[in-house]
UniProtKB/TrEMBL annotation:
Species the sequence originates in: Larkinella knui
Name of the molecule in the record: ABC transporter permease
BP terms from Gene Ontology: lipoprotein localization to outer membrane
GO cellular component: plasma membrane protein complex
Domain spans labelled MacB-like periplasmic core: 25-247
């Protein structure tokens, strides 16, 4: 039997006398519980925000992207394509040329991100759920079509139903000197708008067009691209495939997943998550200070009991452990209550979505949450460490004071 734990449990669950110390202990438990619950819920919300952004990017971006390690142009050789296809895990390879261009429609004009793609992009069926008007097509019956984001449609007042008014795309010619006032200084391509899509504000300035026309517009050679987008099988281990492709293709290219394409956003989310975790840790620390006071008062109340223990041969370390276990019992009950309540709130939010985002244009109505075992472990460690440190000082002081009193007597 663990004697210090047994005595601490007797002190905690004793029904003989309910005093102010019990009230402080109860407040301590509630404080630790609320802090623990807040940690679980807030960390899960940040996880949900990460997954929400990945879901948004999955609607537009490929699983893996092969980009040049230096510069803007990727030289694609038959050997490079064969190495990618040999993996057997790549389902579709989309050739992409991407650059900024000037879009004009009737009397309006705006700068857009022009993305030249082949038909394999539509075979990925990523835009099926994002299409808000028109059809998904790039070339049909000798007509070149463009797909525009809703932001471009609103800026230029584009109507996909108007087949007579073309969307003009202008790109500066590759010359050492030219006059911006001359129309001859720019390449021009006309497209009929086949459809409008909406994903998220970050993709609201995109125009998708056939890569054959875009290549001529921006002046890329036949073997030059901006990137290759790879759609892989659903069951494939993406990090392992990314590492394998990087080793096979060499250092002239870099393999990126969706997180690599949006590093600033995910870095910002993780930094915010770190600072919120530190802030809520201080909340748990403040709540745990009540444990310090309750243990200090308990040491005074149980002074005679401790003197008897010393008379029976107890050591100072045993007395310290009694009060340390007393504080840990308070923290354990409060922390367990907070963990259970936090997990329950997250599961209810996932199932019913009680807390709304409050944004009309959001893809989802409720705040996204995602429970992760690592966050639960981190929360548990934080509670244990903070409460143990807070409990140690009054426990050590109780043992020293009680030993001193016993020596005087």
């Amino acid at each position: 039997m663990n004697l210090p734990l047994w005595i601490a449990r007797r002190y905690f669950f004793s029904k003989r006398k309910r005093s102010f110390i019990n009230l402080i202990s109860l407040v301590s438990m509630l404080g630790v519980g609320v802090g623990t619950m807040a940690l679980v819920v807030v960390l899960s919300v940040f996880n949900g925000m990460e997954e929400l952004n990945r879901m948004i990017f999955k609607t537009f971006e490929a699983d893996l992207t092969v980009a040049p390690a230096q510069g803007k142009r990727l030289t694609v050789s038959p050997g490079l394509m064969q190495k990618i296809q040999k993996t057997g895990d790549v389902v579709l390879i989309t050739q992409v040329i991407e650059d900024n261009a000037l879009a004009r429609y009737r009397d309006g004009q705006t700068v857009v991100k022009l993305k030249g793609i082949d038909n394999s992009y539509l075979q990925r069926r990523q835009l099926d759920t994002a299409l808000v008007q028109g059809k998904l097509r790039l070339q049909e019956d000798g007509i070149n079509y463009a797909l525009v984001a809703e932001g471009v449609r609103n800026a230029l007042l584009i109507s996909p139903e108007d087949m007579l008014t073309p969307l003009e795309l202008w790109y500066p010619q590759n010359r050492k000197t030219y006059s911006v006032l001359s129309s001859d200084a720019f390449n021009r391509a006309d497209f009929a708008v086949s459809g409008v899509f909406f994903i998220e504000d970050n993709f609201d300035d995109y125009v998708l067009a056939p890569i054959s026309v875009v290549r001529e517009l921006v002046g890329y050679q036949q073997n030059q691209l901006s990137s290759l987008e790879l759609q892989v099988k659903p069951e494939v281990d993406l990090p392992a495939l990314k590492k394998t492709l990087q080793q096979q293709l060499g250092g002239k290219v870099v393999i990126k997943d969706r997180d690599d394409l949006n590093p600033d956003l995910f870095r910002a989310i993780r930094i915010e998550k770190l600072f919120v975790t530190v802030t809520l840790t201080f909340l748990v620390l403040i709540a745990s200070i009540n444990i310090f006071f309750s243990l200090s008062m308990l040491a005074i109340e149980k002074k005679d009991d401790v003197a008897i223990l010393y008379a029976m041969g107890a050591s100072p370390s045993l007395v310290r452990r009694i009060f340390l276990f007393e504080g840990l019992i308070v923290a354990f009950i409060g922390g367990l209550f907070g963990l259970v309540l936090g997990i329950a709130l997250c599961l209810l939010q996932q199932r019913f979505g009680f807390v709304s985002m409050g944004i009309e244009s959001s893809l989802i109505d409720a705040y996204p949450v995602k429970l992760q075992a690592s966050d639960l472990v981190i929360t548990t460690v934080i509670v244990i460490v903070v409460t143990s440190v807070v409990s140690w000082f009054p426990a050590r002081k109780a043992a020293a004071v009680s030993k001193a009193v016993d020596s005087v007597q």
